[in-house]
Amino acid sequence: MKRSAKFTTLALALCLSLPAFGISLNEAKNQLETVKQEGQVGETPTGYLDVVGSDERAREIVDAINEARRQEYARIAQKHNIPVTQVETVAGKKAIEKTPAGQFVVIEGQWVKK
To answer: 37, 63, 91, 100: which could form a disulfide with 47 (CB 3.0–4.6 Å)?
Structure first.
């Protein structure tokens, strides 16, 4: 009985430590423009993407892109010896400015169609 419980605990721990089966960064990059044009994803002042609605595919794309952005922002911050939040803020401002008309951005805490 104890052996079975230990095995179950070990199996559960291994499952929880494995990365989630999300989409790859390349797949996310390939689909990003489409979900932005569809109004499912938008830019935020924090330098990261967010899901406008509740679409699971959009969430996977956002998660993959945001992880890559997090790593890049950290690299830039370390290189210039500045806080990551400073890099995120500048990146967010630039991303919102570059967002084309018809796509969503967060302005003063609200989703707005540019």
So the answer is: 91
Say how far apart CA 106 and CA 112 lie, in whole Å. Answer: 6
Give the pTM.
Answer: 0.80
For 3-37, b where at least 16 C-beta lie within 10 A, e where not — what string? eeeeeeeeeeeeeeeeeeeeeeeeebeebbeebbe
Structure tokens at 19: 């990365």
Tell me the pLDDT tens digit for each residue of 98-109. 999 999 999 999
What is the Cα 40 distance to its own chain's centre?
Answer: 13
CA–CA gap between residue 105 and residue 114 (Å, rounded)? 7
